[in-house]
Amino acid sequence: MLEFITPISEQLAFWIVDGAWWIAPLIALIAGVLTSFLPCCLAAIPLVVGVVSGSEAKGRRGFQIALIFALGNALTLTALAVIAALLGQLMRGAGSWFYLILGVLMVLMALQMFGLINVLPGTHLLAKNKRRGYIGALLAGILSGLFSSACATPVLVVLLGLVAVEGNILWGVTLLLCYALGHSVLMVVAGTSVGLTNQISSSAKYKTAAKAAQITMGVLALLLGIYLLYLGF
């Protein structure tokens, strides 16, 4: 079985890490968009907007709050990308242990996306932000960059793992900014009309598509994890 899976994992890793320069950022952008539509993220949008505005934000103010939230999210992800790249540079001397640790981490994130384990905090942490207005939106965005949701954070961890493997700060920042851009699209749109999220989430077709997207991302994370474990052994 491993003899069949490993070539697929190796090809996937090549496309994301060593392939054409545009493939990895494109994948990160698509992953950001997909995670923003996952049920746990979609359900959190009214919570975030409501927390930072004190009530359901609408129109121009809602758009501004959502935009500042996206900025805070991007700031955190940029910082995480720099840290991951620097750690990757430092850990390269660890040899096979470096790949084994990252491989295990990616497998755990895949299991999280499959719903088999739950090792990550959810969006309830965002509710601890008591600030309102634009400052509250910025703080909520910063917190979201660390603990976006139990279904989106695994994708973020996988991307940070890839940044650590590459060890390139500029590449890592580009990757995470693309992810942040994709992940914030729905948030910005919904900031103008929170009711849009309720309309989307009530659709049966949406729930089916969201589940399929989550499983697909979990499979990709699992394949990358298997490949890194293969390198470690």
Number of strands: 0
Derived structural class: mainly alpha
Number of helices in the DSSP assignment: 10
- Cα radius of gyration in angstroms: 18 Å
Give the % helix: over 70%
Taking the sheet with the most strands, its summary is: none
Average per-residue pLDDT, rounded, comes to 75
Sheet-strand content, in percent, reads under 5%
pLDDT < 50 stretches: none
- N-to-C terminal Cα separation, in Å? 16 Å
Query: Based on CA inertia axes, which overall geometry fits?
Result: globular
Secondary-structure element sequence?
Answer: HHHHHHHHHH
Description:
- The protein is built from ten helices and no strands.
- 80% of the residues lie in helices and 0% in strands.
- It has helices at residues 2-18, 23-36, 39-53, 59-91, 96-114, 133-146, 153-166, 169-192, 195-201, 204-232.
- The protein is mainly α.
- It starts with a helix and ends with a helix.
- Helix 2 (23-36) packs parallel to helix 8 (169-192), helix 3 (39-53) packs across helix 8 (169-192) and helix 5 (96-114) runs antiparallel to helix 7 (153-166).
- The longest helix has 33 residues, at 59-91.
